[in-house]
């Protein structure tokens, strides 16, 4: 986390030359990316640039077409990889939280602990309550998901992921589907996770969050990493024209691109 630390932390995620095609459509065309243990990296870029596909290749929800992905030193593309073991180490939070509607908040946070980790019920409940407390929802343990706001449901999804004791967390636009007034609480939970030292790779359009919380920001466009660096540099003074244009649009959605800007992109 601290750039001045002399011994580099071990890499939690290493992506090298990653390619992914759907039929003849190559959506990742040679991605290189590293996330160190304890580091928070925000991945930004236009819709369709391959951000979700990249995350999905890290936990093998998609099979890479080429290149190497290692998680905690384990090559995920090795045919003999322990897939369940790998996925257990990686917590994933999606835009749509997919809680079980018929189970209580507490049960949503215990079911995978019991079925996948084979934890005894009492221990699973204890872990779930601790994580619900962490996301500020201790008092909602007995509620059904439909009784909660979208932001509260997303915080339950985070507590559910944390209850599996992941070594790292992947977030794919966790606040994009939320009512604006519930976004802040979700970002606050993510910030506290980051401060507690969790390794996080976060796809987000929340530039304020990225700027404040990320150790590094990676800008992707059209299946490649175009620019990466400290958050303040990439967001505050981007070097690449594509990064500048993207940030202009995200930071000021009312910005109308004039004809003059049209030819300036390299
Ligand atoms: N399962 C799939 N089958 C075919 N094409 C896909 C699939 N998933 C994603 N794509 C395509 O890959 C490209 C990148 O998508 P995605 O990774 O979702 O981008 P982002 O998350 O940056 O918006 C898009 O053109 C999308 O249509
Ligand atoms: Mg996406």
From TrEMBL:
Q: Which residues form the ABC transporter domain?
A: 13-247
Query: Which CDD domains does this UniProt record tie to the protein?
Result: ABC_HisP_GlnQ (cd03262)
Q: Name the Pfam families for this protein.
A: ABC_tran
**Coiled-coil regions, chain positions:** none
Give UniProt keywords alphabetically. Answer: Amino-acid transport, ATP-binding, Cell membrane, Membrane, Nucleotide-binding, Transport
Give the similarity note. Answer: Belongs to the ABC transporter superfamily.
**The protein's name:** ABC-type polar-amino-acid transporter
Source organism per entry reads Mycetocola reblochoni
């Amino acid at each position: 986390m601290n750039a001045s630390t002399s011994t580099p932390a071990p890499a939690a995620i290493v992506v090298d030359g990653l390619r992914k095609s759907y039929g003849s459509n190559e959506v990742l065309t040679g991605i290189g990316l590293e996330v160190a243990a304890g580091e928070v990296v925000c991945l930004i870029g236009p819709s369709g640039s391959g951000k979700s596909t990249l995350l999905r290749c890290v936990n093998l929800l998609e099979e890479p077409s080429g290149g190497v992905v290692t998680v905690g030193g384990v090559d995920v593309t090795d045919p003999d990889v322990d897939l369940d073991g790998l996925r257990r180490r990686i917590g994933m939070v999606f835009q749509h939280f997919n809680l079980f509607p018929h189970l209580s908040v507490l049960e949503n946070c215990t079911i995978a602990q019991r079925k996948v980790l084979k934890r005894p019920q009492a221990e699973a409940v204890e872990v779930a309550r601790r994580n619900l407390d962490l996301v500020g929802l201790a008092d909602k343990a007995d509620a059904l998901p439909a009784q909660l706001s979208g932001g509260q449901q997303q915080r339950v999804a985070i507590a559910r992921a944390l209850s599996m004791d992941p070594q790292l967390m992947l977030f794919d636009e966790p606040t994009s589907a939320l009512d604006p007034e519930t976004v802040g609480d979700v970002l606050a939970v993510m910030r506290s996770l980051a401060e507690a030292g969790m390794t996080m790779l976060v796809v987000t359009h929340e530039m304020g969050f990225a700027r404040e919380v990320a150790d590094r920001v990676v800008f992707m466009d059209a299946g490649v990493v175009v620019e990466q660096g400290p958050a303040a540099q990439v967001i505050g003074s981007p070097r690449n024209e594509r990064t500048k244009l993207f940030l202009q649009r995200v930071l000021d959605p009312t910005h109308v691109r004039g004809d003059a800007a049209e030819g300036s992109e390299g």
